[in-house]
Amino acid sequence: RRFHTSPHICLTFLLYSLFKLSVVVSFLLPIPKPKIQIRNYQQTQQGPTDVTKPTKNNEPFPKVGSSNLDWANLGFQWREVNSHIKVVFKDGKWGPSEVVTEPFLNISIASTALHYGQSCFEGLKAFQMKNGKVGIFRPYANAERIAKSAQRVMMAAPPHELFVEGIKQAVKNNIEYVPPYGSGGSLYIRPLLFGSGARIGLQPSDEYTLLIMVVPVGNYYKGGMKPTTSFVFTDYDRSAPRGVGSVKVAGNYAADLLPNIQAKNAGFSIGLYLDAKTNQYIEEFSTSNFLAITKDGKYVTPDSPTILRSITNKSLMELAEDEGIVVEQRPVLLSEISDFSEVAACGTAVVITPIKEFSINGKVIPVGDASDCVGPTLKKL
After folding, report:
1. Is the dihedral of CA 47, 48, 52, 58 positive or negative?
2. Are 290 and 272 in contact (CB under 8 A)?
3. Which residues neighbour 330 within 8 Å (Cβ) at sequence distance 6 or greater?
4. 3-class DSSP state for residue 211?
5. Long-range contacts of 130-134 (CB under 8 A, 24+ apart)
6. What are the pLDDT digits (tens) for 193-213?
7. Per-residue pLDDT tens over the stretch 98-125
8. Which helix (H) or strand (E) holds 160?
9. Does pTM surpass 0.85?
């Protein structure tokens, strides 16, 4: 008005000013993260879940095993790979899956996982099969088990499809780390669910994070499927009756660290726990289920409410029945060891690890003829 500017010049200046303001605001506002689209693959009824099916757009796949690791000597240890999957439960719902390349985590110092052990995990494997494809072993069974663990410690359980699709995506994103067929290795998959929200009082978190990481591995125990010796714990219990032994919560494994290391320092590869109430019944090994073959050819494995149900053991029981072997899931006395012709630890990490003898209170109990050879039934299974 002071310089008697014409109306159309004022309007032009106003529009230009608004444009500049919108540019500034656009830089100040947060940019939403794009959602990772996870393709939906149909779950097959039998056999492993195949993750190397062609995509809808026939996108090229990296070659399996192209990371050129020493596949024959992987061991069972952490290695950095391309990425992992992260999904967060917040405000009552699960968010989008995110591919994360950094193997680090930013978490509140008051998270319930750190203070109250609100954490559980799973373990499963992906293999390159003889036909060249990569398959994941029974992921829906792990989805059911992590849901049970989450329910026991009051965490939000990931929906089965979200869980399985996240696993598929993690494997596909790291396909070059899948050991080649015939190398004896596999891609170990570790889904981890924990309370990531901040709480000081003892109560469930309001936020949960699901991480799905993968790592190429070889045998859990050095020497592979070679009979080993086991130490029977009598001074430690794995789980109390009506406790959390039947779920895969992190605290169960923390409690096993001390006795497990003591057994290893004494020269034993693996430790065996007895029931906490009577110390007479076999429960399970440190990281795996107990199975035995009787002298009359039956498959026997302990039945107890404090045992974690092994997906590997369940699969072996199904295979045994298919072979006409009688399967007994029942309480197993420690005194029965001398009646078994074969004994093994079984689980995702150890697969089948034969046990040739047990040491308890300084006494050695042999299994069968205590041979260094794998028994015929275990070898067949």
Report:
1. positive
2. yes
3. 300, 302, 303
4. strand
5. 130/181, 132/52, 132/64, 132/181, 133/50, 133/52, 133/53, 134/50, 134/51, 134/52, 134/64, 134/171, 134/175, 134/178, 134/187
6. 999 999 999 999 999 999 999
7. 999 999 999 999 999 999 999 999 999 9
8. helix 160-173
9. no
